[in-house]
Amino acid sequence: MAKPTYRVTVAATERRTPNLRRVHLEGPDLARFPDGFEGGYVKLLLRPDGSAAPGPEGAKRRSYTVRALDREAQRLSLDFAAHGLAGPGTRWGAAAEVGDVITVVGPGAVKGLDPASTWVLLAGDLTALPALSVQLERLPPDATGHAVIAVPSGDDRVLPELPAGVEVSWVVGAAPQALVERVRAVPWRAGTVGVWSASEFEVMRALRSYFRDERGVSKDAMYISSYWKRDATDEQHKAAKKADPTA
Ligand SMILES: Cc1cc2nc3c(=O)[nH]c(=O)nc-3n(C[C@H](O)[C@H](O)[C@H](O)COP(=O)(O)OP(=O)(O)OC[C@H]3O[C@@H](n4cnc5c(N)ncnc54)[C@H](O)[C@@H]3O)c2cc1C
Predict the structure, then answer these.
(1) pLDDT of the residue at 1
(2) Are 66 and 132 in contact (CB under 8 A)?
(3) Atom of ligand 1 nearest to the CA of 108
(4) What is the CATH number of domain 119-243?
(5) Centroid of ligand 1 to alpha carbon of 190 (angstroms)
(6) Is the pLDDT of residue 162 over 80?
(7) What class is the 5-108 domain?
(8) From ligand 1's centre to the CA of 143, what distance in Å?
């Protein structure tokens, strides 16, 4: 069944960090938006030039995390990462101005951390920071573990308040694969781990192989996803995901 669509208007924009721009979307359609999807995602309907598409027919779809939903204000907030090779999604996020109208589709759910785990290990890049932040916000105060996060610059290091037992390692301004090295360097703890990770496609494959094949983490204890693919549009990225023989 086709996912519901919501016609929304840009109500405000906010520069969170040098490379992360928050766009607040509002509109009466959001009265129908279901509760509990923070950390899940919506798809923006776009034209190839980065302008809003009039409807689903022939539109490019780009996924963005539901960073926050304010039910009373009927406000949906998304964070857009900037990167050099802007496709339609990045372009729209960078240029959005108050009053712009766009259609979003969804929401889709993203799996959270396994609540039965003894400790947590989260890893992600700037595109994953919105979703990873929601996961961190949901941790109980006595949670323990690590978060390894890759960002383009030191000023992009923004996180919600963390449980005291969760340590954060930042990988600043490095190539995507540096995230893998830093995750591998996290001391492995006793007990069961809950893994949450989202990143570039090849980075995801390397992390999945590390967790699954080297550390024996079971499927149920792990959310591991790729949010984009180097040198590939999102359409090509999706095709690569489908064809991935190691999945
Ligand atoms: C479930 C989910 C949630 C997501 N949440 C967010 C979010 O909250 N915020 C966010 O910013 N992104 C998020 N993403 C990632 C975002 O959908 C992709 O980065 C998407 O490719 C951007 O579309 P585009 O039109 O700008 O570029 P595309 O047309 O897909 O690609 C154009 C070029 O840009 C390159 N490219 C795409 N993304 C990046 C990147 N991050 N860094 C460097 N180069 C890149 C591609 O390799 C390609 O060469 C999410 C993805 C998924 C699957």
Answers:
(1) 67
(2) no
(3) 1
(4) 3.40.50.80
(5) 35
(6) yes
(7) mainly beta
(8) 30
